[in-house]
């Protein structure tokens, strides 16, 4: 007899013994009376002895049945406890490290969509390096990681955002170089926010800076997005950002003329099963939270 069949048979056995009736015992288990009878008969065959005396109208336990009842009750109680623990485990939030650029509104929508799919999330906003470390140290079970372009499941195009309308369809980094004759005015800078302070984005923009002859100080790493935007609002500087961020911050956004930069995200987790489950079940919800498109959609 299989384990699941054994548990079901023991449930029927315990229910019939407690009610003293095959009909009432079956009703207590919400199964037809013939099904309860078959399960008990199968259990008797498996155990090698009669559990009930069928010569009377009541379901009366045999001596063998009385001896086996405590074990059957323990098995049923253990199965009930296991099912209860399983339900509780499914409701335990999965701690996931997320980009700290995600707004409370976007995370709330992600949470709501995940709940509809039976996934309960506990968000921990953090910059890229900390998100990866949280997973490695098992402080979080999963993270939305910033990965090199082409390696992720979601993509977010980047460009330059400014308080002043650039007046062109694209911003070329070389135009920030300025003239040699004008040495008095401060040259415009590009600010990199923490989410983009990763080698596969930072190093590429550094190479553009050097190739067009900008000064090193014209590319700055900001301690926060707030600091970067504050610098931009009070000057003609730019911040490297997504178009959604620029719109939210009321800035003018343009793509970069010399290079195409993209944030790329993927799910990393303490185990492969969790990562694949989140990718599959939350693909669209995560895309909306990040202001991204799934890579398959971008390629279409």
UniProtKB/TrEMBL annotation:
Top-level taxon in the UniProt lineage: Bacteria
Pfam families, A to Z: HTH_1
Single GO term (MF): DNA-binding transcription factor activity
Keywords: DNA-binding, Transcription, Transcription regulation
The keyword Transcription regulation is annotated on this UniProt entry: yes
Residue ranges annotated for the HTH lysR-type domain, each copy included: 11-62
InterPro entries xref list: LysR_HTH_N, WH-like_DNA-bd_sf, WH_DNA-bd_sf
Entry similarity comment: Belongs to the LysR transcriptional regulatory family.
Protein name: LysR family transcriptional regulator
